[in-house]
Amino acid sequence: MARQVSLDELVSIVNSAENFEVIDYQGNSIVIDDVKGIVKIKDEEAKKEFSELQKRSPRGKPTPKQVSVTADAVRRLAENKVKFKVVFGPKEVIIRFDLDHYVRLSDKDVRVVGFSSKSEGVLGLIAGILEKYGPLVFLKRVK
User: Which end of the chain is less enclosed by CB atoms within 10 A, N or C?
Assistant: First the structure.
């Protein structure tokens, strides 16, 4: 359910490693929502197989350094009124701008997808912050 938060509340949400999506900005408020899944499975057999995979998926939280860098990046993005999603996983954080543009803080570096240079688009806003975590590794999309 969508709700309005301040910038400090948003950073607090990041520090508690909760997934969220920034969907709008209204004055000094930031409108966030829960991250919705992209795929809906209708076939009952596929649902069973998927639930088995979910049971075996790794559990855990991102590292404190990943959370800290993500909080700094989120602050910069929100100050520039960028819409984005943040998804926390075991020892990783994904900041997604759309289906084709995102960054992933892995355990040793920052994987960048959809951008060709660190000054391109919204990546230019947070590249310096992300480089404090580790080197930026640019990946090409598989077609």
Answer: C
